[in-house]
Amino acid sequence: AAGGKDELKQAAKRVRESKRKPRAPKPEPAEMDFEEADEDEIASRDADVLSALEQLGEDAPALRRRVVALTRENDTLRAQLAALRKQLEAL
After folding, report:
1. Count of the separate structural domains present in the chain
2. Domain range for residue 73?
3. Distances (CA, A) of 17 to 21, 40, 56
4. pLDDT tens readout for residues 36-78
């Protein structure tokens, strides 16, 4: 009886799978084009970040400096990524 039960389960599974629509392939993540920011843009973004923190009432100067540093690091990494993508396209 146990063998018949397992066979029945497998047959039901095959029927379900045959009726199931094939999965659509996952779309590839869109590549984002980042251009290197110039010093004026970086300074402007730094000022925007500091202004936003002041509006939030944050009184921790260390936190503000950390956010600015991370924002600059993010800009640098985006520029490096853009340069690497250009190199990859050239291959």
Report:
1. 1
2. 31-91
3. 8, 58, 54
4. 667 888 888 888 877 877 776 656 677 778 888 889 999 999 9
